[in-house]
Structure formats: C-alpha cells, structure tokens
Design a protein that fits this description.
By secondary structure, this protein is α+β, with helices and mostly antiparallel strands. It is built from one helix and 13 strands, in the order H-E-E-E-E-E-E-E-E-E-E-E-E-E. Strand 1 (38-43) and strand 2 (52-58) form a beta hairpin.
Length: 206
Amino acid sequence: MIAFVRKNILTVLLAAFVLIGFCAAFVGCNPKDTNSSYNIIFLSGEQENASVVAVVKSNGEEEITLPAVPAKQGYELNESRWCYKVAGDDAEYTFTKDTLVSKALTEDLRVYAKYIPTSFKIHYIIDGVDVSEGVVDSRYLNSEPTPQTNAIWYVVSETDLVLPTPTISGKRFVGWYLTQDFDQKVTKLNAGSTGEVVLYAKFVDE
C-alpha cells in the first residue's frame, strides 16, 4: 500500500514537472511577452541630429500618452504632428495615441515631429500702391515671375529669398527698403526669416 502511494506521488510530481516545463517553454516561445518593453523614442525632427523630446516604454497593444510636439518658430503648431516610418516602406504614417492599440512592439520605435511651415505675406509698396494686393502687372514687377524672385508669400527657409526687381518706364530702380523714408535697404530675405514683411520700392528719374 505504501509503495503504491509513493508510486502515485512520484507519478504526480513527474507530471507536474513536465507540465511546468511545457508551460515555461510555451511562454518563452510566445511572441507576446508581457515582461518585454521597448522604447518609443520621440524626436524633434526626422533629421539625423534631431534631439530626443521624450522616451516612452511600451510593449504595444495599448494606448500611448503622447508628449506635446515642441513649438518651432515659423511653423504651425496646431497642424504639427508625430510621424513614423516602417522598415522597407518609404511611406510616412501619423502616430497617434491609438496607433499601437492593436499592434505589439517587437523593437524600439522612432517617432519624429512633422511640422507645417507658416506662410507669411510680403507687401511690395510701389508709388504708394501695395502691388501684392492684386494689381501686379509688368509696369511694376517682372513680366515673368518665379516663386523665388517674385514671391508674395514665403515660408521659413534654409536659403535666402531673392527680392524682385520692379520696372517703371523712365525711372531707375534703386532698391527695396523697410521704411518709407528709404533708410534700411534690403536685397533679400535672409534664411530663417519669419513674419509679415512690408517693402518700399525706391525709384529715381533716369
């Protein structure tokens, strides 16, 4: 009787060990390991030298609390958003708090801030008339305008914006000025410029 009981106990223990081993192996092979967490790295931009805004740990399959997109001069804050790309895919995707609700993470994810530039108006004042308000013609601005030389709207840029050269018959164009008194001459809008601009054209008789 004792031998029978001992045999049954050994059988039960052996079965328990086998079951525990099987469960451990199953959990180890299960791709959703609830103990694993990855870094969601929020960057200030897509460029390589972008700074880290925040790092959120997650294993996916949950709602993510997003950090605020940092303000950037010359860009629309209300239209800015977080974006990411998938390996092997050039498409850009918007990253929201619900992006990972039904998706598990298997590696760190880089998310970057995407900005929409603000458009700023350039007012060209010639003979007291703002020619940027719909009365542009060949008497004032070049007859073949280009975005770079006759821009009425501009956005922040890494390059200078060259200003147009207007023409009036019988007069010589001296240049553009920031005041009506013609005491602050400008030939271009410098890279990084922002804000509305008013320019006054100076002419002299030929």
